[in-house]
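Deliverable D2.4 — example input (structure tokens):
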């Protein structure tokens, strides 16, 4: 088994670096020419600083483009980016990661902006790097302008805001929706976040906006249902199989790539236990009980092999378990009272999971949960489990 782990971790880096995820798209060159081909789409939690492009999906020749040598690029039905060259803010403005003074520093940069929404009058863009998230608005056929927002700590260590972006939004409202006092009031309360700003932009555009200028917009979550069986081992030597049913939701950082998955599930299981119980006379008896458990399990999963048709993931989480017991009794020669055996109503496990997802429709998974105590006290009883399961994605 140790040799298997060594081989796995030796091969894993080559899998990660060799993996690609090409989708049909285009690049818009500085000459104005549009070149169609395939773009290697990544998770891009931060805005890309360059992209890989192929004229043919199965071709070997890869071209790399950055904001200096193209006007923008798009991945069909997914994302659109344009090139922006100009001054950008450099302050940190999201509490608690803020400066202890007002920072109005700017620098000249050439970067990719992601199109969030566009319409009759305005387009809305976002850009993120290791320093901050920035938002930009452009009028039709105009150059994007950054929305201004400062937040910092004063001498009394109180957070001070300078929400200039609200005034910028009100300017656009008065220009394109004059007399709309309700929309002005909403802009005065708007948070400096993508979704609420996008909603105001759409209202300014007369609700004719097209989010991300795509027709195949997909949600950043999915529901699933599944079933499985786990092999539970008590005290290291007594094993019992238990059935389990599961419902849950997956949240994606990027729904088109689905590299990182934040999973939350609720499951029901039933255990009919019949385990050894030792007494002071060294005689072996059996403790029998039924255990009904409901489990809430948040997890973080990572697809280390990630294509449209096949994904291989690994991850871990915490299993919060509520258990109820019935039918508790002893068999054998002991005169002990089964009521004296305390079984925990709440206990916590740390499951590790790996699996494969096929055609974005269903998955097979393997779960290992290390030894977990389910009775109170210093000499608590514990068990560990191995499980196999199948999940089907609900569309």
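Example output (designed residues):
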């Amino acid at each position: 088994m140790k040799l298997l782990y060594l081989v796995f971790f030796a091969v894993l880096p080559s899998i990660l670096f060799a993996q690609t995820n090409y989708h049909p798209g285009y690049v818009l060159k500085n000459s104005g020419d549009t070149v169609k081909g395939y773009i290697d789409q990544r998770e891009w939690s931060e805005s890309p600083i360059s992209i890989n492009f192929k004229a043919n999906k199965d071709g070997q020749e890869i071209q790399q483009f950055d904001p200096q040598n193209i006007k923008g690029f798009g991945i069909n039905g997914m994302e659109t980016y344009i090139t922006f060259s100009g001054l950008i803010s450099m302050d940190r403005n999201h509490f608690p990661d803020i400066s202890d003074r007002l920072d109005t520093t700017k620098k000249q940069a050439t970067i990719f902006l992601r199109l969030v929404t566009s319409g009759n009058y305005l387009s809305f863009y976002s850009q993120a790097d290791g320093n901050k998230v920035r938002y930009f608005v452009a009028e039709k056929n105009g150059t994007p302008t950054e929305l201004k927002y400062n937040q910092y700590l004063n001498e009394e260590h109180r957070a001070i805001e300078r929400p200039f972006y609200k005034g910028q939004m009100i300017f656009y409202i008065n220009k394109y929706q004059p007399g709309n006092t309700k929309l002005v009031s909403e802009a005065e309360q708007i948070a400096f976040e993508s979704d609420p700003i996008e909603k105001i932009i759409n209202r300014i555009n007369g609700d004719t906006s097209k989010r991300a200028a795509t027709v195949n917009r997909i949600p950043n979550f999915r529901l699933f249902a599944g079933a499985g069986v786990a092999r539970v081992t008590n005290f290291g030597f007594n094993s019992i199989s238990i059935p389990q049913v599961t419902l849950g939701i997956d949240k994606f950082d990027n729904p088109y790539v689905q590299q990182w998955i934040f999973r939350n599930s609720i499951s029901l299981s039933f255990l009919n236990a019949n385990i050894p119980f030792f007494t002071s006379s060294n005689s072996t008896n059996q403790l029998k009980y039924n255990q009904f458990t409901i489990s809430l399990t948040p997890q973080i999963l990572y697809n280390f092999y990630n294509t449209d048709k096949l994904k291989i993931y690994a991850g871990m989480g915490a299993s919060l378990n509520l258990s109820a017991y019935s039918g508790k009794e002893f068999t054998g020669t002991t005169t002990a009272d089964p009521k004296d055996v305390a079984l925990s109503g709440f206990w916590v496990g740390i499951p590790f999971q790996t699996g494969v997802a096929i055609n974005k429709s269903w998955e097979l998974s393997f779960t290992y949960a290390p030894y977990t105590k389910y009775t109170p006290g210093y000499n608590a009883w514990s068990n560990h489990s191995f499980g196999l399961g199948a999940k089907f994605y609900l569309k």
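The first strand starts at residue 22 and ends at 29.
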